[in-house]
Amino acid sequence: MADILHRIGIKDATPQRVYDALTTVDGLAGWWTDDTKGNGEVGGTLEFRFPPGGFDMRVIDLKPGEQVVWQVVGGPEEWIGTTVDWHLRQDGDYTVVLFKHQGWAEPVEFMHHCSTKWATYLMSLKSLVETGQGKPSPRDVQISDWH
Amino acid sequence: MADILHRIGIKDATPQRVYDALTTVDGLAGWWTDDTKGNGEVGGTLEFRFPPGGFDMRVIDLKPGEQVVWQVVGGPEEWIGTTVDWHLRQDGDYTVVLFKHQGWAEPVEFMHHCSTKWATYLMSLKSLVETGQGKPSPRDVQISDWH
């Protein structure tokens, strides 16, 4: 099994504000994709769509202001059954976000791509919370021939 | 063991131009850090310095236009003995870069940070080759309280 790991710090934010951006359709649409639908409560499913395809995430754990865990239930076959775990904490003026996309069966080339793409979306989340403006799809940062 | 993986595509580039940016002091200084010194040939050591510290990399394998492999011989203790592997190939109009920073003993918080920071430096490499202008340290993208 292989994991994608990331860490960002969001300045002058609170964990609760970041949590809202990870658990509400409006918040998620502000940094990941305009085309976000569904229900961000535990047991609900969030549907994220992008020009090349999309992901359905079942919300499996929520600790307000601290943690969000999704299980991938729809999308590319390499993603099915993997989990996305967000951990939040306050550290001085920053909210630190520890991100894990866990349980890839193999470190395939698509996983390399998703790792870099997640980093650009995390920077979009940081920008959304710090400035009010993220870069969600379809205005996302293009990293390669794959988008 | 845990690995950091990334993939970018550099438009209208050739693998040889990207290879030059990974094997010459001028090229490396254009996207990673202004403060780059040393010898990029096999058996040589490259010294990269940043405001918070730095890394010494022994060049252990080179395949012109295809692959660059470094072993970390100086820097933070979590980095010592890890390897950084760059694989290049042409894919249509793009040079695809597959990046692996392999052999982390544990998936510590610092590894999460380095994963995101590598992504921003890979985007700097892409920008350098595509536009002539990267974002090397100390003008690098700030991702958190850690820099």
UniProtKB/TrEMBL annotation, chains A, B:
Q: Which domain of life is it from?
A: Bacteria
Q: Which InterPro entries match?
A: ASHA1/2-like_C, START-like_dom_sf
The record ties this protein, via Pfam families, to: AHSA1
| Annotated Activator of Hsp90 ATPase homologue 1/2-like C-terminal domain residues | 12-130
Q: Which family does it belong to?
A: Belongs to the AHA1 family.
Record protein name field: SRPBCC domain-containing protein
Q: Which organism is it from?
A: Actinoplanes aureus
